[in-house]
Design goal:
Deoxyhypusine Synthase, single chain, six-stranded parallel β-sheet
């Protein structure tokens, strides 16, 4: 049994996220210690010879955390991105319009009447979402895809990033750096609806999701070691760990989640549960941090990049 003493945290004037996280790793308990462990694992992931996977849900792209995601992709810190259709929606919308700070406690009936969507405590004007995404997607599809009968999600997403042509966009940097973005649930959002709408007048147009799966298969088998930063849960999380089992599991896994395991959900499942499925290696480095990614991730990534 390890007998490493608990160290008190002494705050100093010149502390930065990296130094604080290192102190937290020695503090003995609870999520603070997990933050410190996650920092060590991410630093190794970024510097080591790993196939690097990043997964996240759509909601954080509606917040300023989009900037952290964009920076990671701009700096080529990950080789493969797995996310949801809503992440495409919000990235397009915010590249051409604004979202606004709001409140959890506003009257939603009133918001509906004045044309405001509420995402948590973010306000999204109706005209900055659906109509804008429809305009941009139909322009792209009718110009770039008029002669194309079949494509994959990652190729389509690169074209969306090229169309956006805005350095604040994570899709733009994925295109610029040719980092694949996989969206297994491509129809579950505004972009997916526009693909369906386009097909109504182009009946031979098809999104080949199995081409995306082939890319993931080629990716995992081309790397001797795999690591992942998994933000939130759902289909993005599962797709990363599902494929990793075919290489005997992830060597490094950092989960950030607000969900708990007691309802049996995938979103709440801890890293140690994934070991039982072969999705994380028994001797892999893994940690689950329970908390809000909009609080945790800026400190963690700042420490991993610049500490």
């Amino acid at each position: 049994m390890q007998r490493e003493p608990v160290k008190d945290i002494v705050l100093e004037k010149n502390d930065v996220p990296f130094s604080l996280l290192k102190k937290m790793s020695k503090a003995g308990g609870f999520s603070g210690r997990e933050m410190g462990e996650a920092l060590d694992y991410l630093k190794e992931l970024f510097k080591g010879d790993y196939g690097k996977i990043l997964t996240f849900p759509a909601d954080i792209i509606a917040t300023g955390l989009r900037g952290v995601i964009t920076q990671l992709i701009k700096l080529k810190k990950f080789d493969l991105i797995i996310t949801t259709c809503g992440a495409l929606d919000h990235d397009i919308a915010r590249s051409f319009s604004d979202y606004y700070k709001g409140s959890y406690f506003e009257d939603d009936v009133k918001l509906r009447k004045i044309g405001i969507h509420r995402l948590g405590n973010v306000f999204i004007p109706l005209e900055n979402y659906g109509p804008l995404i429809e305009k941009k997607m139909q322009e792209l599809l009718n110009s770039e895809y008029s002669q194309i009968k079949k494509t994959s999600t990652y190729k389509l997403i690169w074209d969306i990033g090229k169309m956006i042509n805005n350095e604040s966009s994570f899709l733009y940097w994925a295109f610029k750096n040719q980092i694949p973005v996989i969206v297994p649930g491509i129809t579950d959002g505004a972009v997916g609806y526009q693909l369906w709408l386009y097909k109504q007048s182009h009946r031979d147009f098809t999104i080949d999701v199995l081409e995306d799966e082939q890319l993931i298969s080629d990716f995992i088998y081309s790397h001797k070691k795999l690591g992942a930063l998994i933000i939130g849960g759902g289909i993005s999380k599962h797709h990363a760990i599902w494929w990793s089992q075919f290489r005997n599991g992830l060597d490094i896994a950092v989960y950030i989640t607000t969900a708990y395991e007691y309802d049996g959900s995938l979103s709440g499942a801890l890293t140690k549960e994934a070991i039982s499925w072969g999705k994380i290696k028994p001797r892999g480095k893994h940690v689950t941090i329970h908390g809000d990614a909009t609080i945790i991730l800026p400190f963690l990534i700042q420490g991993a990049l610049y500490g």
